[in-house]
Amino acid sequence: MSYTPGFDPFDEQPSEAVAAEPPRKKKRRTAVVLLSFLAVVLLAGIAAGGYAFSLIHSFDSKKQSLPNSQVFPDDKDRPAKTDKSVNFLLLGSDTRADTSSGQDSTTASGRSDTMMFVHIPADRHDVTVTSIMRDTWVPIPGHGSAKINAAFSYGGIPLAVETVEGLLDTRIDHVATIDFQGFQDLVDALGGVDVTVPKPFTKAGTHYEGKMHLTGEQALWFARERHSFQDGDYQRVKDQQILMKAILNQTLSKSTLTSPTKVSNVVGDFSPYIGVDDSLSGTVLAQLGFSLRDVRGDKVHFFTLPNSGTGRSEDGQSIVKPDDAAIKAMAEALKKDDMDAFMEKYDLG
User: Fold this and answer.
1) pTM of this prediction?
2) SS3 at position 9
3) Which domain holds residue 327?
């Protein structure tokens, strides 16, 4: 069974002048996420490649630490941890944090622009990355049903964590964020990445079609565009997954891992834009990297949380309708630490 989304005719399309506006650089603590799983999978891979000590120092000295008290909900209401798998929640806000007033990514108002759930099984055989559509209609504790990206607006990271834990009935171990500027710098530090564009479009003076080598700025446009596509945000999520695979393969390639200079540039340029819970230190990351030493690009599986297309809420909002049966099956698979069977059954990844 596969999931083919429908076109939402109610999605407003901005004028071309608005759509062509170049991406603005965010402040360092803005935490607008696209590829924050790279903060753990890619840097872990670098650690496994023999750069653990350098990684620990660079990562710990440059990353942003998010206090656990400002990241996780009250422990008494959370699912229990029953195995040695590791789960990450990756969040991004569409709001610029005002650092001058002390506001940061854990408390800023606004809605999470991107949300991903990363599962690393106990056997460390592979990794699954689940994109959660921002308009997915779910129960939000204390607020009734709403779009899942509203959880961040209602209660910051803790409520976003609680909402996803309730949806998947599984415990989240770590939270990570990265802003757009860090993502762009990462791609440039790698010397660009190669992608195959599935649906052609033109943006900011570049025509995207077929096989392309993208700079950091071009990759950012590729990952953000949705107004050129009939299925909008669905195609954007697919393009983000294509780009993540390309960055993953380039980062874990022999040409990167055998180049101390490139490794230093990747970690040094990327770490300042990463925000993680304070229990995720460079040492923990290096240990995780060693356990993932046999994982390469073909062992990282990407899919979108199963849904039944678009619709309307009772109050008229355009929403993405979750496939409750498939999500329940995913929750059971997480309990059994057997995502392979789930992905095979639902033709995912």
Assistant:
1) 0.76
2) coil
3) 30-188+272-338
